[in-house]
Amino acid sequence: MDSRTVRADADEERLQLLLRAILTEGEPSSPSGTTQERERPDDRGRGSWVLMANRLEDLDSLSTFERTVLPMLVGRWQREGRDLASLPIPRGLHRRMIVRNRIVLDGAREALDRLAAAGIDAIPLKSAALAGRVLPERGLRPLADVDLWVRPSAHRAGVRLLARLERVRSGRGASSPHAQVVRDTVGRELDLHRHPSHLYASRGCTRTEAERRFDRTWDRRVDGRPPLSDILHLALVNALFSHAPEEPRAAFALIEFDAVLRHPDVTAAILDDVVAHAIEDRTATILVEHLDRLGPGVSAPLDRFLHDHLAPSLTADDRALRAWTADQHRRTGTDARFPLWLRQAAHTRQSVPQRTRTVARWLLRAEAQNLRHAPWAPITRLLRPRTWHRLGRLTSGVLAERRFR
Q1: What is the model's pTM?
Q2: Among 1-15, 154-168, 217-231, whose mean pLDDT is lowest?
Q3: Is 208 left (phi over 0), alpha (psi -120 to 50) or beta?
């Protein structure tokens, strides 16, 4: 076992310990998005503080997940009365997150105003929609970009509008079948979505279907804001489809959802509506996979959501896929990306792959879809030696599995 594998295993173990500590502590939200102090300082936060306190002077030793949650935890520890006087850098990271997030969210409002002035419909997604509504105004994590869902039939016009005085970001990932990124004049990234998640693009969603999905949310607005159930469902699908349970972004999505569920505005009726969207979009097993991986007894709100709202809605096919995804977490592959791709492919098709040839067919279809979007990309990739090395490992991984159950 090489050093990178050992480090990855250690990071995953620390992620699981810290995630469970954060969720066990909990922190209910008030209607204004601030937090309520209901326990004494010594009664809460002990788990995350013990796990992190002795390592805060060497931030380079922290994992990606630990660096992501640190600004949020510093704010929590300050409210709990922890002595952080000797830790100026973590305190500075907390202040930096507050300032940066305010700038990023201001960019969301400015972009929405420009689109509205031009008659282009757009809906904020993820933190741009949840912050200040059912999450604190500052958010819970450092925000990298603004996610806006632009009416699909007007997407090209929206990109042209926002790129007129700004520049389209160059480089890998700047454009994809489901979104395009532009960077504004102060450096904020605007991720302009055709589809609210990569999942829908992966399923080959037609233009008519994409427009219908946008209309469903747009027509349900109240006082100009999209319905809470819609943006909650889309925020979860966005993070939990693209990232496996052991990845930092997926773990933080559970922290955010736990905070959302503690907000008094999030009623049982709203959660039932979230599940109704998941049933309609065939995304329920994506949510279940991550909650199963977390396990019961960590977060009472997440347990109630799974037990009372989500689990009763599962069909026989959903339950089969639920069992299969749980089994996949116990497997090891010859290529690090193969298990991640395979779970995404299964969720995309809402189907358990029964044979090796099924997986091979999925791979070919995925490559064909990539080819339609970027015809010259395969030529570039074939010139790279690492492509051939990965192809060999990927083929070995497929052939090594006689059945995928």
Answers
A1: 0.84
A2: 1-15
A3: alpha
